[in-house]
Amino acid sequence: MRAGNLATMAWRNLWRNRRRTVITLSAIVFGVFLAVIMMAMQDRNWADMIRLAARLGAGHVTLQHPEYYDSPTLTRPVGGTAELRRLAADNPRVIRVVERITGFSMLSTAHDNIGAGFIAVSPTDEDEETLSLLEAVVEGEFFESSADGGIILGAKLASNLDVALGSKVVYTLTDKEGEIVSGLARVSGIIETGSPGVDGGICLLPIDTVREAIGFGPDEAIQVAAFVDDQRVTDRVVADLGRAAPAGVAVLPWHELQPDLAVFIAMKVGGSKVMMFVLALLVAAGIFNTLFVSVMERLREFGIMLAVGFSPGQLFRLVMLESAWLAVVGLTAAALFTIGPYLYLASTGIDMSALVAADQMEIAGVGMSSVMRVGIYGESVLLIGFSALAAILLSGVYPAWRAGHADPVETIRLV
Question: Averaged over 192-207, what is the pLDDT?
Fold first, then answer.
């Protein structure tokens, strides 16, 4: 029998029991839908978290003094920042490069003394794409220049210090030689992210003002931060820059600088893979059950077909074609069923603010938006599609083998 005739026969066999076929197709559609939405939530959430962590911290890739990671003090600057920025910007995967001075300071007012982390930045280089804190400025404005005399405080930090816009704040640092130095600034802005750790423990300072206070040269900083367009290429960029960077410069990826976040994401990704594997097994078991029961119900029919000239190979191909039809119809229906909810969740999302106390949820020190959206990578779509196709086809192998090895004499006697 020609392949086209077998395919037609397989299609007709599939609909001889419409109810069972529809139930099986529903299982495929629901399973693929869940897999796509779960993977899309994972891809979007982790990409957003990593992007936000890079914009809040030191970029996706950081160039700094080799000893700064183990001993983060202002006595370990990295020099030649102009050349390092040029080196990073020449990499085709890098979209932005900035230099920063980060560390810890003691903030003092007439009311209180509080320790806080600081990030010294250049207003001409930084914007919301490189520094997420700028999105959260609720009062005042960003610095006018790198030598500005202002300071931007987190909302909770400002409240604890009992200061407002225009108030004076004394910040105390250790300089390049390890000596204690102080500077005076006026509060020029307030930031409110919704993350208690950020709002209560961070401040922004102008980079040239801090350079002068701590004795850094114009070509010195603590970190040169590079941002990439896709966090998945971070390790490749690190490898490229590591080969090109001069001696005495360490090139580190975000997941080494923020291990808590990296471990959290790795655990969640591993758990999601296990869940999807279990889901695939359940769907495959349902499809196997459908095909196997269908074959067992038709053993007498298969025996007659063998007796009139069908070969075992043709019967094997017939049942496998039924499995293939299930895959084609099921995956097509799954795509049509999934695209609407996916587009809605990708654009509008689901507001989870009623379930959390703030506009953002904080995980491993990084704030997450309370609006849940989805976004899936192309390779994730291919992985789900090919995995579903393989599961459906593999589910039909044993029933097809059983059909091809039916004994004509024994099966014809079945009532």
Answer: 87
